[in-house]
Write a structure and sequence with these properties.
This protein is of the alpha+beta class and 276 residues long. The chain contains seven helices and six strands, in the order ββββαααααββαα.
């Protein structure tokens, strides 16, 4: 009778781990195994099939063959599209960052050239300017007229050119770029370039002085009383009824109708004999 060396508990082969010996058949042990992949227990394996044994559970590998719904397929497609879009956006942002960096370097180079009194490497002299030829006096009149026309056609320029420094900057810029007779096109091109480089700035208007508002006062209430003087010459107030009941003599005395500011009486003096 053939004998077999029994496998030890815990020994593993092809994802199966020996947990116990179920029985013996024809002198061969039948092992009860645990599948380390799907967790199935009690998988029977004969000793002579140990090296090629596999899990026979119906649950084995079910995650790999799970049925997929239409909603899940669409969700996977949407996720894949979003992934591609994110990758394209990342490339676009990288290209924009590189382009911005290049523009900054060119702007810094142009600023250095302009500050040193050299021509702007990005400025292109219009062909119409290179063909202009006139006397010095006519050139001065032409430049003044073109400058005035530039200001009339460019309302934005009025924010910059009350300042003499901005005028000196744009005049030097045009001259250093090789333009001796500036046209309206040249003024506009120079203005836009200097604004872009930040070499001229807007003239800030002074802030308006705040006007102090008077403090609100309580409205005076008319109590219906009239200021006057009593019989002792002291200030007092009279009610409308008291005024109504006064005689003419009391009224004249209470309100001093015939008395100057210095206290003298200037009422008319009439003799009785005139009425006789």
């Amino acid at each position: 009778m053939k004998t077999y060396i029994v496998k030890k508990i815990g020994e593993t082969s092809n994802g199966l781990k020996v947990e116990t010996i179920l029985r013996h058949e024809h002198g061969q042990p039948i092992y009860g195994c645990l599948c380390t992949s799907c967790g199935a227990r009690g998988v029977p394996v004969r000793h002579d099939k140990w090296e090629v044994a596999k899990c026979i559970s119906s649950l084995h590998g079910r995650d790999n063959y799970k049925p997929v719904s239409l909603r899940e397929i669409r969700a996977e497609e949407a996720a894949e599209q979003q992934k591609q879009k994110d990758a394209e956006d990342a490339k676009l942002r990288e290209a924009e960052a590189s382009l911005t960096s290049t523009h900054r370097k060119l702007a810094d180079l142009a600023k250095k050239e302009i500050a040193a009194g050299r021509p702007d490497p990005e400025f292109v002299v219009p062909q119409s300017v290179s063909k202009l030829k006139m006397s010095l006096e006519k050139a001065r009149s032409f430049v003044e007229a073109s400058c005035k026309q530039f200001m009339d056609e460019t309302p934005e320029a009025h924010k910059y050119f009350p300042d003499q420094k901005n005028w000196d900057c744009i005049s030097s810029y045009v001259w250093n770029c090789g333009v001796q007779i500036a046209t309206v096109e040249v003024w506009k091109q120079a203005f836009e370039r200097l604004v872009f480089l930040g070499l001229i700035s807007e003239v800030k208007k002074p802030a308006p002085v705040p006007v102090e508002q008077p403090e609100p006062t309580e409205p005076t209430v008319d109590d219906g009383l009239t200021d006057g003087w009593d019989d002792n010459g002291l200030p007092c107030k009279f009610t409308p009824r008291q005024v109504f009941l006064m005689s003419s003599e009391q009224y004249r005395s209470a309100f001093r109708l015939c008395e100057r500011s210095d206290g003298t009486d200037f009422s008319p003096k009439v003799r009785r004999s005139l009425y006789q």
